[in-house]
Amino acid sequence: MFENVREDFHVYAKFTGVKELKGFPGASWINETRRFLAALWLFPFSSVLLFRAKIWLCKHHVPILPRLCDWINMLVWRVQIADSANIGPGLCISHGEIMIYGEVTAGRHLTLNPYSGMGLVHKRRVSHPLERFGGPTIGDNVFIGAGAYLFGPIKVGDNVRIGASSVVTHDVPSNSVVAGIPARVIEENDEMRELVDEEEAD
Questions:
Q1: Active site residue 128
Q2: CA spacing 20 to 30 A to 145: which of 28, 92, 127, 166?
Q3: Which residues span the domain enclosing 147?
Q4: Which CATH number does the domain housing residue 13 bear?
């Protein structure tokens, strides 16, 4: 849990705008503390913390408190993430209004924008066999635009950008950009990998 939270925080720390203090002992620790408090105050970083805490509490079979984390997340940020969701470190929820339900698996550095979500879909409507009745499996460095939804047991590769208001019901290859209803690949090349490398370097 704590390793995940540390990397989640580093994603938000880039946007806090806190100026570094230098030239005295403990400056690094003070800078990190100021960034942490700014992230809690200015961004829905607290929503990510509540999700991480809920998963940890569920794993250790603590009663009541996981549901309390859910209620706070819903009331404050309108974020609902299922207990069965497995999301890697570096999760970034930009402005709340997120719904993730079912058996969703996501890799590192998933970015979710407002009114987006993912999860299960009824097998009769999408013709998925019963044994694959699950949610999406998402790779690393995936950006999901505002209002986009991913349904069913699909696979999304690494370094993917999903356009705003897209509806994704089929597999998406790595290093691509998809958009539309239903979503289709509009760009696919290795430049997406280079773009992600540049963002991580910053």
A1: yes
A2: 127
A3: 2-201
A4: 2.160.10.10
